[in-house]
Amino acid sequence: MNDLGYRKLKVWDRAMELSVEVYLATDLMPDSEKYGLVSQMQRAAVSVPSNIAEGHSRSHLGDYLKHLSYARGSLAELETQLEISVRVKRLSRDNASESWRLAQETGRMLTGLIQSLQPDTPPASS
Fold first, then answer.
1. What is the domain partition of the chain in residue ranges?
2. pLDDT exceeds cutoff 90 at 123
3. Positive or negative: CA dihedral 56, 69, 74, 99
4. I need a surface site. Which of 53, 79, 114, 117 has the fewest CB within 10 A?
């Protein structure tokens, strides 16, 4: 783990794409959600690449894994918020689809990275 090495991680790059996509999607939501779902979704989205970067910049593997776990948690929050925004009709399923796709892809990449850093852990069943 080295300084700015996180920028070379594909999972960090995908999480950055996700963050941008969430900002674009939340721009389509009504102003009444500015301090509700919009704020929550943007924070959760930004938290994913932020935690990947912070963990990678730490000097201990345990810290890195902990921050990757935080990133997974933020991703789960975001997925939940995306689903809520669609169910309460603040965002159409079509407008949420790219964020959802990127969230799923980021999740798979995070799981793979975590598993690769824990070689004694058996792979998760699909």
1. 5-116
2. no
3. positive
4. 117
